[in-house]
Amino acid sequence: MLNKELEKALNDQIKNELYAAYLYLSMSAYFTAENLEGFAHWMRMQREEEIAHAMKIFDFVQDRDGRIDLQALDKPQSDFESPLAVMEAALGHEQKVTQRINELYELAVKHKDYPTQTLLQWFVTEQVEEEATAKQLVDQLKLVGDNSAALLMLDRELGVRTTAE
Ligand SMILES: [Fe+2]
Ligand SMILES: [Fe+2]
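Above: the input record for the complex with fe (ii) ion. Below: its predicted structure, written as tokens.
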């Protein structure tokens, strides 16, 4: 049986992952409006990945005989200054998620809940990857600067992403 405080925190994290999906979907729409379909596609893949993260926790809570209590999602940012501003926002968001995963882990340790710790270990590893990927795109967009040929090249590259991993 799940501890109540932990159950609440896991429900909060389901919301955080779904919000991330919502944010990436909004970012995808921004890129489509900017005619950057590769970036838009990449953001759609990110969205799928975040839905999968939410479902991982959703299933876990129920497997542990906990109760799901879905929450309202905030409106995601929909307008951005530039592709670089989008990726910086994405990186900032991933850093916040990492912080929350770490806090959740601490809570699981406090309650000596080993299955939750095991679940969260997957998320700890995943966040390293997520931050690294976002950081790399921020750096690449900085290199691109205002060179539109380089931006289109990067767009093509992102357009071939096939899996949400
Ligand atoms: Fe996530
Ligand atoms: Fe993420």
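Notes for the reader.
The two ends are 31 Å apart (CA to CA).
The mean pLDDT is 96.
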